[in-house]
Amino acid sequence: MHHPTLRRGFAAIAAAAAFTLFQPVASRAADVQWDVSLPWGPTEFHSTNAQKFAEEVKAVTGGAVEMTIHTGGALGIKANESLRAVEDGAVPMAEYAAFQNVGEIPLLGVESIPFLISDYNDLAALMKIVRPVWEAELQKRGQKVLYVVPWPSQNFFTKTPVATLDDLKGVRMRTYDRVTADMVTRLGMVALQMNNPDIVPALASGKLDAVMTSGTTAVAQKYWEFLKHAYNTNHMWASNLMVVNLDEWNRLDPKQQKMIEATAHKLEPQFWEISKAEHAKRMDELRANGMTVEPASDALKTAMREATASMEGEFVTANPAAAPLLDAYHKAVGH
């Protein structure tokens, strides 16, 4: 599906990127130069992962393929527009969170079904089943998946203490997508869907009372300046996809393609290990900056599970193709 207004905007972005792309550089010019759009801040681990990937690709291709990482949405492409931007060729490569692009491919939202996934082992089991389907759908949209890496465990970050569901009534909570917006509405909160760069201005202006996200983003955005409490709710999981436009990919010779695929295959497990270490590391940083960090109370977790118990079935009703995938997943993990 093409969107004329956005496409015109993307065309302008592409023109600006092309101007930068072909400026002279001191070293030998690469045969292929790709701009890579990321919405995450420069210090977040997904961004540093992307930089490492770019460096290793440049090394293994002998400098023939060079990727320039643009963090923080510097190319003007929002997280929830990234899939379309790669499809339309506005940018050769991008990394985006699957769930933020469910408007384009609804099955990308399967991870955000509340309490479907308990830990990294569950997530890996789901990825074995879902990833081939994601890759096939994205191929139809003109892009190739190079690697997939999850965010750490999710949390609620709030101004005031939260012990029971009553403490969340009326709280204006940042959400990711329709599924998480539905979840917080069922919990009595007011859902405000927004991308990462919009969170801090909304907190500063008083538009937002609370945020759901990982500890990684909370540290990068210094939530202790606005919020006082962190609760590990582990209510959903989210993965990022590094993708490349298929037309750009097909311009490479087969040897270069194999080199890049091998590099992605080598680094992806390393990137998962970095993700696994992130939660504890960032929670410690939040504590060091004065935030109270604790698990969600049993009462709150029970209430959250009860309020969202029907959401998996509703997701399947809205997306029938998810039914066999979820059946296979439940059999694989035994719950």
Amount of beta strand: 15-25%
Nearest-angstrom radius of gyration? 20 Å
Backbone shape:
globular
**Multimeric status of the protein:** single chain
Q: CATH top level of the largest domain?
A: Alpha Beta
Structural class: alpha/beta
Q: Report the CATH architecture of the largest domain.
A: 3-Layer(aba) Sandwich
**Total count of helical runs of at least 4 residues:** 12
What number is the mean pLDDT? 91
Strand order of the largest sheet: 7-6-8-5-9-11
**End-to-end Cα distance:** 37 Å
* Beta strand count: 11
* Unreliable stretches: 15-28
Question: What's the CATH H-level superfamily name of the largest domain?
Answer: Bacterial extracellular solute-binding protein, family 7
In CATH, the topology of the largest domain is named D-Maltodextrin-Binding Protein, domain 2
Please write the string of helix (H) and strand (E) elements.
Answer: HEHEHEHEEEHEHEHEEHHEHHH
The major beta sheet can be summarized as: 6 strands, mixed
- Helical amount: 40-55%
Give a written overview of the molecule.
This protein is α/β, with parallel strands linked by helices and 335 residues long. The chain folds into two domains: 4-151 and 238-281, Bacterial extracellular solute-binding protein, family 7 (D-Maltodextrin-Binding Protein, domain 2); 154-236 and 292-333, Bacterial extracellular solute-binding protein, family 7 (D-Maltodextrin-Binding Protein, domain 2, 3-Layer(aba) Sandwich), CATH 3.40.190.170. Helices cover 46% and strands 17% of the residues. It is built from twelve helices and eleven strands. It has helices at 4-21, 45-60, 82-87, 120-140, 178-186, 199-205, 215-220, 246-250, 254-288, 298-308, 311-318, 322-333, and strands at residues 32-37, 65-70, 93-97, 143-150, 154-158, 172-175, 190-193, 210-214, 229-232, 239-245, 292-295. The strands form two sheets. A six-stranded mixed sheet has the order 7-6-8-5-9-11, with helices on both faces. A five-stranded mixed sheet has the order 2-1-3-10-4. Strand 6, helix 5 and strand 7 (190-193) form a beta-alpha-beta unit. The chain is globular, with a radius of gyration of 20 Å. The two termini are 37 Å apart.
